[in-house]
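Saturday, quiet lab. Running sequence design on the C-alpha cells for the scaffold JK sent over.
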C-alpha cells in the first residue's frame, strides 16, 4: 500500500501528465477506486446494517465512551490519533505544536463526547472538526506565520519508469508542503483529510460540512491547483 503522501504526489503527477482536464478527471475517478484510503468504518449509526466487524467495534466503543468508559475512549484514541496528528501537523508545521493540539483535540473530545450524535457526522469527522477549530484558534491568537519543516516526513521517491513516475520523483516534501498550505482553506483541508489523514469522501464531507459531490469537486480543483503551482521544470 502506498503511503498517503505518495498518493498525493501521484495525483499531482496524473494532472501533469494528462493531456486535458477530461483525461485527468477520468484518471482521478479510476484512482478513487484503486487507492487504499482508510475505510469509512464509523459512518453508519447504531442499528444500521454493516457487515464490517471493525465498524461495529468502533461504534460500540463510542457508545461505551459516552457512558464514561475510559478504556473504550483510550481505544478510540489509539485508532484515530495518527490521522488527527497528520492533519494537524500539515497545518501547523511544528511537531511539538501538532502533538499539543492533537492532545487537546482528544481532551476536548472526551469532555464533550456525551454531546456526540451519529446523525450526519461520524466520530472521526467529529474529532477532525475539533482539531480544525483548535488550529483556527491558534492562528488567530498567535497572528504569526510558522516556518514549515518537513524533515520527519518520508520522501517516498520512486524509480522513474513512466512520464508520471518521472514527475513523481521530482516533487519534494518541502515543495508539496508549501503548495498544500497555499491552497484556499477548504481545498487545503480537503486535501489534508483525503491524502494526509486518509479519510473517505463521506468522512471529509461530514467534517467540512459539504456534500460528497462538492468534496469530489474540491479535491479535483485542489489537485489541479497543486499541479499548476509546481515549478516550470516539473511541469
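Result came back. Writing it out in full:
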Amino acid at each position: 500500500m502506498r503511503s498517503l503522501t505518495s498518493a498525493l504526489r501521484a495525483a499531482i503527477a496524473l494532472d501533469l501528465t494528462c493531456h486535458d482536464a477530461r483525461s485527468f478527471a477520468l484518471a482521478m475517478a479510476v484512482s478513487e477506486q484503486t487507492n487504499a484510503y482508510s475505510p469509512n468504518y464509523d459512518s453508519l449509526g447504531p442499528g444500521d446494517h454493516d457487515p464490517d466487524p471493525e465498524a461495529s467495534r468502533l461504534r460500540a466503543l463510542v457508545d461505551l465512551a459516552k457512558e464514561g468508559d475510559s478504556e473504550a475512549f483510550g481505544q478510540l484514541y489509539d485508532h484515530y490519533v495518527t490521522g488527527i496528528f497528520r492533519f494537524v501537523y500539515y497545518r501547523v508545521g511544528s511537531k511539538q505544536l501538532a502533538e499539543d493540539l492533537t492532545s487537546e483535540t482528544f481532551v476536548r473530545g472526551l469532555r464533550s463526547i456525551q454531546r456526540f450524535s451519529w446523525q450526519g457526522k461520524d466520530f472521526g469527522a467529529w474529532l477532525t472538526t475539533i482539531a480544525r477549530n483548535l488550529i483556527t484558534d491558534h492562528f488567530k491568537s498567535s497572528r504569526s506565520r510558522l516556518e514549515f519543516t518537513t524533515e520527519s516526513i518520508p520522501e517516498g521517491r520512486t524509480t522513474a519508469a513512466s512520464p508520471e513516475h518521472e514527475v513523481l520523483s521530482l516533487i519534494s516534501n518541502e515543495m508539496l508542503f508549501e503548495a498544500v498550505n497555499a491552497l484556499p482553506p477548504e481545498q487545503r483541508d480537503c486535501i489534508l483529510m483525503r491524502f494526509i489523514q486518509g479519510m473517505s469522501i463521506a468522512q471529509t464531507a461530514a467534517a467540512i460540512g459539504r456534500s460528497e459531490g462538492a468534496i469530489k469537486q474540491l479535491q479535483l480543483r485542489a489537485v489541479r491547483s497543486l499541479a499548476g503551482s509546481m515549478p516550470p521544470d516539473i511541469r
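Notes for JK: Confidence is low (pLDDT under 50) at residues 33-44, 144-164. The first helix runs from residue 4 to 17. Ask whether to fix the surface positions before the next round.
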